[in-house]
Amino acid sequence: MSLPLKLFLAVLFGAVIGLERQGSNKENPSENINGIRTFSLISLLGGLAGAFYISDSIFLLVVSTVSALILIGAYYFAGSFILKKVGLTTEISMVFTFLLGFLAVSEIFPLQLILALWVVVLLVLSMKSKTGVLALGISHNELQTFISYAVIALVILPFLPNQGFFLQDIPGTSELLKSFGNDLDFMRSIEIINPRKLWFIVALITGIDVFGYALAKLIGRGKSFSLTSFVGGFVSSTSTTQALALRSKKVGAHLVLVSAAILANVASFFQIFILVAPMNKEWLAEITPILSMIILSGLGMFLFYSLKGRKENVNVGQEQTSRGENVFSIYSALKFAFILTTIKIITKICLAVFGQSGFLASSMIASFIGIDAIIINLSEMAGSVITFKEAALALILVNAVNLLTKFGYSFFAGDRKFSLRFLFSVLVIIVSSLIGFWLWP
Questions:
Q1: Which residues neighbour 264 within 8 Å (Cβ) at sequence distance 6 or greater?
Q2: CA triple 427-433-439, angle to 5 deg
Q3: Residue 382: beta bridge partners?
Q4: How far is Cα of residue 125 from the mean position of the Cα atoms in its chain?
Q5: What burial class does residue 184 get, using C-beta atoms within 10 Å of its C-beta: 0-12 exposed, 13-18 middle, 19+ buried?
Q6: Distances (CA, A) of 391 to 144, 201, 270, 344, 439
Q7: Is 101 within 8 Å of 49 (Cβ atoms)?
Q8: CB-based contacts of 174: which residues, under 8 Å, 6+ apart?
């Protein structure tokens, strides 16, 4: 673009931001001393600074930038100390307006990125009333949760090395293994950890937790019992099943409670797609028929008990949709990373020493504490260390053990009618998954 066109674009950026600022104080329009003209001139000044930058006029660049900062500082001083107004939104938006004008002319960044930044600034400025309402509904612990996830996904992940570390990389390991005999030489090639891949998995798992918790908060109380339970399954299907089992002792609506518990577990089955897709798309395509059988059978049992219990009435509580205000923390993320690494090492050793039976046995034992880490481990090994079919069989078995473990929780914590009906549904889901495996192409 020519220089006049760039300056016009800079003025346009400022004019639109000024229009938003001028309309943000509709209750007291007489107090709007900043608006379209003010922000247009600030952006134009930024555009001139950009022109000075590309022409190497350093003195004029410094003068224009310092002048803009002095004007913005004077505006802040007048508002804070003379008019007694608290807030920095307008002053910060002035700084961004100057920068947008500068970037539009200097072309340091592509025009698409500058336009995206402009849109984001407008979006943030226009959310004044909405952010006020949102802030009233967010607790301090929840805010810490979202900040923790930002640290995990945006601060730690980009700087971790994408490199595998093996047992043989640990000093003294080779000599130690040799002392036990040559039969253990294979263990030297077992990968212990890949920091980038491991932390990506942690970010994925915790991201699912955050999404489920945010969805639960968005739905809130007073919504349908089934929808609340489904969202609770995204947060934690085990916790949701336990909560429903405990409730079954207090109310008589066993059919509705069982249907809700089944739906919560169906939600956890959908998570398998989310976990496997970024890790191993080929294996996901192979196991999709099996997962479809599991989900369809679960939905079938949900509909069966829902229709039988449609006359029952249950007052759903909030405990089914969340595990507490702290969805996760940095500590829980590190704990999951440790569990995943331990499971990977143990299952690989069992596979090398005892064969497929040892691998399946170790995976099934590990599924007592949850299947997320097992699913990720299978995704990494399927097609390389083990065949797709062996990984699919392991998936079916660990899912069966995990479901039966939930039945054990419900048997001891809930009503017998609830637990037996839940067991029947679990057996139907397990049999359906075995049928899907039997029909493996």
A1: 229, 230, 232, 233, 237, 240, 241, 244, 320
A2: 135
A3: 386
A4: 25
A5: middle
A6: 38, 19, 18, 14, 15
A7: yes
A8: 168, 188
Could you please report the per-residue DSSP string of 178-230? HHH-GGGGGGGG-EEE-HHHHHHHHHHHHHHHHHHHHHHHHH-TTS-HHHHHH
Q: How many CA atoms lie within 13 A of 145 on its CB side?
A: 20
For the chain, give every domain's residue range.
3-134, 144-438
Mean per-residue pLDDT over the chain, rounded = 79
| The pair of three-digit structure tokens given for residue 94, joined into one six-digit string | 């002035």
- Count CB neighbours of 348 within 10 A: 22
- Residues 172, 177, 182, 184: is their CA dihedral positive or negative? negative
Distance CA 397, CA 293 (A): 15
Contact predicate 428/422, CB 8 Å: no
What are the pLDDT digits (tens) for 271-284?
Answer: 898 889 888 999 99
Give the predicted TM-score (pTM) of the model. Answer: 0.61
DSSP assignment, residue 386? Answer: B
Q: Compute the 3-state secondary structure of the chain and give helix, strand, coil in percent, each to the nearest 5.
A: 80, 0, 20
Dist CA 379 CA 258 (whole Å): 31
Return d(Cα 369, Cα 427) in angstroms, integer. 20
CA distance 332 to 231: 21
**Cα atoms found within 13 Å of the Cα of residue 244, Cβ hemisphere only:** 36
3-state secondary structure at position 403: helix
Helix (H) or strand (E) holding 265: helix 254-276
Of 171-175, 185-189, 224-228, least confident by mean pLDDT is 185-189
Nearest to 406 by CA among 431, 363, 370: 370
**Rounded Cα gap, residues 219 and 241, in angstroms:** 19
In this structure, of 116-120, 143-147, 414-418, the range with the lowest mean pLDDT score is 143-147
Please tell me what DSSP assigns to residue 165.
Answer: E
CB neighbour burial string for 23-60, b if at least 16 within 10 angstroms, e if fewer: ebeeeeeeeeebbbebbbbbbbbbbbbbbbbeeeeeee
Structure tokens at 85: 């107004």
Of residues 379 and 339, more confidence is placed in 379
Axis-axis angle for helices 388-413, 372-381 (nearest 10):
170
From 221, 392, 215, 406, select the one nearest 298 (Cα to Cα).
406
